Amino acid sequence: MSASTSTHPQDPSRNPWPAVIAAGLATFAVVTTEMLPVGLLTAIAPALGISTGEAGWMMSLPALLAAVFAPLVVLAAGNMNRRRILAALLALLVLANTASALAPSWGWMLAARVLLGLCIGGIWAVAGGLAARLVPAAAVGLATSIIFGGVAAASVLGVPMGALIGEGAGWRWAFGVMALFSLLVLALHLWVMPALPVRSALGLRQFLALRSNRALQTGLVLTLLLVAGHFMAFTFVRPLLLEVSGVDAQWIAALLLAYGLAGMAGNFIAGLAAARRTRLTVAAVALGLLLVPLLWLVFGGSHTGGLALLLFWGLAYGGVSVALMTWMMKAAPQAMEVAAALYVGVFNTGIALGAWAGGQVVDGWGLSAMLWPAAGLAAAALVLATGHAVRQRRMGTR
Fold first, then answer.
1. The domain that contains 235 carries what CATH number?
2. What per-residue confidence (pLDDT) applies to 156?
3. How far is residue 189's CA from residue 177's CA, in Å, rounded to a whole number?
4. Which residue segment(s) compose the domain that 292 sits in?
5. Structural domain total, the chain
6. In angstroms, rounded to a whole number, what is the distance separating the alpha carbons of residues 213 and 217?
7. Nearest CA-CA partner of 189 in 20, 367, 34, 1
């Protein structure tokens, strides 16, 4: 961790796993809220009088703001107990979901997504590095997989359940259910999360000290490339399935559930693999995200092809968060909270840029055209990750 935090559980006699699960549920809640428009895009857009491309801003705006808020939350937090910060952010998440459910206009919805951006940046920055503070060193890999399993679980349950609720009761009820769920996560957090004090406040000096960390810089570039490439395409996965693969709308929720299940598997496979071979795991993930859009151009025009590629997509992307966070922890083990804040900032910049650029391409050239730049970004990440892995192997490191 950083100089301001401890890297060991504070009370060895306390069972740390309920707190780890609570942190995983917090990431699940905030990522589900962030991703909810993916499964509801074609329902929200006409209701608020906007185009499908414009609706992509529901993804881009909070992600872009999260990139700014992540380091600012860490800096503004000073030496405040991290347990209190997480509680405050979860309370704001309840408010953001409630505001989205009640949004009477596009402007109101954007305002709610601005508030969500603060929640995303803060929760990810704090929760991302909690594993080493909650569990013994030997269990950090599993704890990290559980915490970031909330991201994959958001795809398994959150996005498809949101789509299912949207189909049956309307998209507003999907946000309303998330408001209630976020409230329950807040209650659990207050019950099981131990105090997370810091010894000293973080400042710009700790951030600037990482300027010469080449491994960290490489990890941040990989994060930007992989996440932007993924969300350039995934923001519009519903239209892809409907218009390119010809899937009936009633099957979207089930298909997104299958995608999420594959993502859960990818999360734990990559989490265990990254603990031993971090760089090669990231390279494998990049290869998977390169193949998905390329193969979709060839085989995505059928029901079977779309389903098979969606499952493979989930498996590949499921490993992104945990593999890259493991990269960050290994690159800056003594400044983990700072590294986590930078990682969250770049990750959400990737979401914002990918969703925005995807919307521009979709509105200008159509859905299939968007798959080419998505593949290009993944290819660049594969080259970078492979090159870094080869160099580090020659140096005898992993």
1. 1.20.1250.20
2. 66
3. 18
4. 17-394
5. 1
6. 6
7. 20
Q: How is residue 312 written in tokens? A: 């493979």
Is residue 9 one of the residues assigned to a domain? no
What is d(CA 255, CA 39) in angstroms, rounded to the nearest whole number? 11
Is residue 333, in this structure, part of any structural domain at all?
yes
Distance of CA 55 to the CA centre of its chain: 19
Collapsing DSSP to helix, strand or coil, 54 comes out as helix
| Average pLDDT in the chain | 82
The reply to whether 10 falls in a domain is no
Distance separating alpha carbons of residues 90 and 196, to the nearest angstrom: 16
CA distance 335 to 328: 10
Tokens of 129: 């590095």
Q: What is the rounded distance in angstroms from the CA atom of residue 367 to the CA atom of residue 87?
A: 40
Cβ(309)–Cβ(292) under 8 Å?
yes
Please tell me the distance from the alpha carbon of residue 164 to that of residue 127, in angstroms, as a whole number: 29
If pLDDT is split at 50, 70 and 90, which confidence band does 103 have? Answer: confident
Helix runs in the chain, H state only: 17-47, 52-55, 57-77, 82-102, 106-127, 131-134, 140-153, 159-169, 171-192, 204-208, 214-234, 237-239, 252-276, 278-299, 303-318, 320-331, 336-365, 367-394
Residues 6+ apart with CB under 8 A from 395: none
Whether the Cβ atoms of residue 260 and residue 156 lie closer than 8 Å to each other: yes
- Alpha-carbon distance of 395 to 379, in angstroms, equals 25
Q: Under DSSP, is residue 213 helix (H, G, I), strand (E, B) or coil?
A: coil
Decide if 130 is inside a domain.
yes
As a whole number of angstroms, the distance between CA 259 and CA 311 comes to: 5
- Does 11 have pLDDT greater than 60? no
pLDDT of residue 162: 78
